[in-house]
Amino acid sequence: MSPEPLEKIAAYQPLADYLAANLTASGVARGEVVLTRDIETMGQNLRDGSVHVFVGSASSTLRLEETAGAQPVALATKGGDTDYRTLFIARKDSGITAVSALSGELVAFERDISTSGFLLPAAELVEAGFSLKQIQSGSAPPRSRAAEVQYLFTRRAANTVDAVIHRQAAAGAMSNTNFAKLDPKVQADLVTFGHGRLIPRSLVSLVSLGPKRAPAVAAQVPGLLNRLADAVDDKAILAAADGTANFQPLSKATEESLAFIRDVIRRTVGDLSS
């Protein structure tokens, strides 16, 4: 699921080792980081019990909630933020400053499991009355109908920016946190619009670990995650995991955001799978 699998495994292995070391009394022998090529394979791993804890975006989490029974239990703070929002970008000289101006255009999305880089901006297009049609990256897009928006996946936010800057796509979608990381000179050439509501950036979910140890493990994992930020020796584990500052329980605001995303998925899933 990650474009940089080896880096992700190295980043999260200390966290897996920490959890395993603190759950030996509950029958957990070791911790292992597992990455998959797609969300469907991860769902299968969760269902067959080969994976028990999932860390990922809100849209991935909720898809696995539906298909594999994953239950969100904690929210991660990364880069000082627990939440982010989606936005569209376009070249300033394109004249595109609103979602309504994307009629008949090509839009660059990141990956189909990205909340801010696909699910929410694509849903916004659908709710604006557009039909969506995916094309393959690198292919010459056929002429698009006025009420249609074509899209392609770039796999990385940086690639989305490049596609827009080099006029390979009329617009792109990304998170405000990724936009903030861009070179100021690049930002100066872009306009942003269609800013969405704040949504959870990264979530931790649990599934059953077997009838004998599931209750004990499920009860301990959230507390173990929450305590990581309090121990000086354990802060390196957090920092390694994509610069995580802490894990915290789900707040009412987070639960409301997840309910919003569930509703978006329910209303638009058919339109986004075409």
Provide structural commentary.
The chain has helices spanning 5-21, 39-48, 58-68, 115-127, 157-165, 176-180, 184-188, 214-227, 235-240, 252-272, and strands at 53-56, 71-78, 83-84, 86-91, 106-109, 131-134, 148-153, 171-175, 190-193, 199-200, 203-206, 244-248. The strands form 3 sheets. It has a 6-stranded mixed sheet, sandwiched between helices. The chain is of the alpha/beta class. The protein has 2 domains: 5-81 and 199-266, D-Maltodextrin-Binding Protein, domain 2, CATH 3.40.190; 86-196, D-Maltodextrin-Binding Protein, domain 2 (3-Layer(aba) Sandwich). The mean pLDDT is 87. The longest helix has 21 residues, at 252-272. Helix 2 packs across helix 3 (58-68) and helix 4 crosses helix 10. The chain is built from 10 helices and 12 strands.
Please give a handful of descriptors for the protein shown.
274 residues, 4-stranded antiparallel β-sheet, 10 helices, globular, 2 domains, D-Maltodextrin-Binding Protein, domain 2, alpha/beta, 6-stranded mixed β-sheet
